[in-house]
């Protein structure tokens, strides 16, 4: 019984440290450049899938000119990453479905990590605000715009990061 408790404690500890680090990446650089842009323009989108029994993670960060993707398994201490430039048209296609005025209406759902589930987390930044959603796929009315973003993203990502 002790190893199960220890493993769950380690998973929780890992999650608590990984998520804040994920959300703080590139924040200063984004804030400086964002002050010169329109306040309701999307400047950054990230999508992550984190959790599971082995500590699986996949993190994708997209800006108007690049994509950074990484994935791994904490249990096996594996890590891979991929970077690519994107065109202005790719960025436009990806964010076309996202309506800034509707972002506050998207609802998150409870975390699944406590039951060895995987959480899907979106972060969408504008110069005015950062929107964070966890497992919002349960919000069938408002999730459609995020689903369309994922479909456009998958047209660019290598198969192993989809």
What would a concise description of this structure say?
The protein is α+β, with helices and mostly antiparallel strands and 162 residues long.
Can you walk through the features of this model?
With 162 residues, the chain is an alpha+beta fold. It has 4 helices and 6 strands; from the N terminus they run ααββββαββα. It has helices at 2-24, 27-34, 88-95, 144-154, and strands at residues 44-51, 56-62, 66-73, 78-85, 118-125, 130-134. It has a 6-stranded antiparallel β-sheet, with helices on one face. The model has no long low-confidence stretch (mean pLDDT 84).
Q: Name the poorly predicted regions.
A: none
Estimate percent helicity. Answer: 25-40%
Note the beta-strand portion: 25-35%
User: Which class of secondary structure composition applies to the elements?
Assistant: alpha+beta
Which helices and strands appear, and what pairs or packs with what?
Elements: H1 2-24, H2 27-34, E1 44-51, E2 56-62, E3 66-73, E4 78-85, H3 88-95, E5 118-125, E6 130-134, H4 144-154
Antiparallel strand pairs: 1-2, 1-5, 2-3, 3-4, 5-6
Helix pairs in contact: 3-4
Features:
single chain, 162 residues, alpha+beta, six-stranded antiparallel β-sheet, 31% helix
């Amino acid at each position: 019984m002790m190893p199960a408790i220890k493993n769950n404690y380690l998973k929780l500890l890992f999650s608590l440290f990984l998520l804040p680090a994920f959300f703080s990446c590139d924040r200063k650089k984004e804030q400086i450049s964002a002050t010169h842009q329109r306040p309701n323009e999307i400047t950054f989108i990230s999508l992550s899938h984190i959790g599971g029994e082995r500590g699986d993670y996949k993190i994708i960060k997209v800006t108007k000119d690049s994509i950074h993707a990484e994935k791994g398994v904490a249990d096996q201490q594996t890590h891979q990453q991929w970077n690519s430039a994107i065109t202005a048209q790719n960025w436009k296609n990806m964010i076309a479905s996202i309506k800034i005025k509707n972002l506050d209406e998207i609802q998150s759902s409870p975390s699944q990590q406590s039951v060895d589930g995987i959480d899907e987390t979106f972060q969408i930044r504008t110069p005015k605000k950062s929107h964070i959603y966890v497992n919002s796929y349960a919000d069938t009315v408002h999730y459609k715009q995020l689903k369309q973003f994922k479909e456009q993203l998958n047209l660019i990502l290598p198969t192993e990061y989809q």
